Amino acid sequence: MAQISQDEASVVIIGSGAGGGTLAYELTRAGIPVVVLEAGPHLRNEDYMNLEWEAFNQMAWLDPRTTSGSWRIATDFPNLPAWLVKAVGGTTTHWSGATPRFKAHEFRTRSVYGRVEGANLLDWPITLEELAPYYDRAEKAMGSTHRHGRPPLPANNNYKVLAGGAEKVGYRHYATGPYATNAEPYDGRPATVQDGFNFQGDKNGSKWSTLVRELPRAGETGLLDLRPESQAVQITHGKDGKVDAVIYLDSEGNLHRQAAKVVCVAGNSIETPRLLLMSASSLFPDGLANSSGQVGRNYMRHTTGSVYARFEKEVRMYRGETMSGLIADESRHDPSRGFVGGYYLQMISLGPAFLASFIEPGAWGKEFTELMDAYSRTAGLWIVGEDMPQETNRVTLNSTVQDRHGLPVPDVHFDDHANDVAMREHAYAQSDRVYEAVGALGTHHTPPYPSTHNLGTSRMSERPEDGVTDRWGRTHDVPNLFVSDGSLFTTGAAANPTLTIVALAIRQAEFLVEQLRTGAL
Amino acid sequence: MGYPEKYPAKYPQLNEMEFTDTARQILIRILRVAFPHEGFPDGPYERQADQIFELANESTWFRIKLTQGIATLNDLAGGSFLGLDDQSATKVLKHVEHTDFFGFIRRTTILNMYEDEAVWEVLGYEGPSFDKGGYVDRGFNDLDWLPDPRVEESQEEFVEIVSDLPVTSGAAPGTDQPTGDAARSSHPGVASTTADQNLTEDN
Lengths: 521, 203
Fold this sequence. Notes:
The complex is a heterodimer.
Chain A: E1 10-14, H1 18-29, E2 34-37, H2 52-59, E3 66-68, H3 73-76, H4 109-113, H5 128-142, H6 157-169, E4 174-175, H7 214-220, E5 224-227, E6 231-237, E7 243-249, E8 255-265, H8 268-278, E9 303-310, E10 326-327, E11 343-347, H9 352-358, H10 366-373, E12 378-385, E13 394-402, E14 408-413, H11 418-436, E15 442-446, E16 481-483, H12 498-517
Parallel strand pairs in A: 1-2, 1-8, 2-5, 3-14, 8-16
Antiparallel strand pairs in A: 4-10, 6-7, 7-8, 9-12, 9-15, 10-11, 11-12, 13-14
Helix pairs in contact in A: 1-7, 1-12, 5-12, 6-11
Chain B: H1 21-34, H2 42-58, H3 60-76, H4 86-96, H5 100-112, H6 117-123, H7 181-185, H8 187-202
Helix pairs in contact in B: 1-2, 2-3, 3-5
């Protein structure tokens, strides 16, 4: 592990998850030393726990946040808008593993969907064709099943129900992946033992994360200076408008300054805009890189929801990989369904502790306990679909509450768009059909969980006035400031975002290497 | 009857009271009625009640709410909440379901009672599994009442954009539809109309 002087103007990456961890690996591999500031501790696979709440307490980002808007989260979980990880490896340490690609038209939603009232749709400044080679590299890095010779995972119990129902209602595009967990040993990591714990961190190391792959390999180059428990609180700049340092807090609350020649922000879509907004200055009065006013706006969280179906016989959905199965048929764009964009139906399982907390927040009495009593006979799925970017869905700095460091708490405001509602209703109905086709005694429509897919708050745009970042993720306003996480997403697509975040980060790294080589940066 | 305390007192001594065994019995009964699981033994309910008392003792506000709430239940029950059958007791809880008192009990229970081994056993959940080698050799795929499904992706072409031309009834999802620029160019109008209609309904 390298030790880079705080006075040495370095490439500084903020965050070590899908975007930041990948970038660190790609840059160090190309011979570029980097400092990675990670807000959370350095947990290892052996530290993880097979207990839902204890693992949540160990891994989750629990710094206070507030919520506003008409989404139900603001009522049920007002201080928990999102379920993200604060640890080395970021949210890749608790993600499930689904790795579908975006479709070509999902980079061109303004052109393909047309004008949708109230939505701030915009075409991406890049195309699928441009990203395809990086998707290939990302899939190989992550070991996606069904891709590049990686075998599929076997069907577990929950998948048998989902796929059985899919087949009966006429769906064709179902499979146990693509899913970034080893079905057989690959890349120095073992095959899954199907222990059923994904959201709690994978003790076995079969699931891809930057904790098990990119960060240790970046460390082996001798060029990575990884600093856990180092939370960036401000990015500073010189008179020339270029960023020159990152101010961060250590675990004891002491402030440090790391000099920087390039800063890449990858703190996920709530902390990234929060940091840019907290970095406001006389030169950038509305927040760093915010001349467009779009920093924090167009916050997306995917249109989600869950359906839990009860059967006569045992399912035991908790046995085996949590999300190794999906139905892709509804991910098409087909406006005859009453909405634009598409969605996936993906297997999901929660243990009794989380199911009790999330299946129907606020519920009690027999209606609730009947759902729980059917636990071992229950199958579950998660809806994940494209939601509409809206300018008013946004992350702002809450002016009325601050955290223990005296920093403004981020507020996450969200209202469903009518398109989101129509899609969710359609997905609930289709899910009922799937489960009823294989004999469900009843189904329950669970509302969206705290957001696991957080997107769009520093979006890419061709024109500086439409977004925060350009086609490389470089901010339009500051030439040596980059965004390297899901905040970049111009629109959300239906697919789970991690693969696309990794592909974008690999592509961005190539650009950075070239810029640094030629002295442009 | 009066309520012991409604608000934090000027002097903290006024709140230095302890819950009696009767209060504990009432709380356990509340949990049994609000979270009726026939198969659950007494242990999880008793442990949950004790945890609620512990949390209440850490917070003056919750202690007051709990004291006040339990007294209110007896009022609503016309004397003794413990004397009510399940149906009547449920009705009484319905009356108070939006109070801080009940919300505190409900939320604390939801967030804790189901991470309990005795509860898992009844529900058929096996808890931590990694130390047992996961389920790879212990039934991750033992469901036998449905056929083994395909795990590979379908070889059928996936149509990413489906025309908004009328779909004939009975068409399976994913059925081939005209695609390409001709189909794409006709989408905007329809998409926009759909969204407008939805907005109108919602607003």
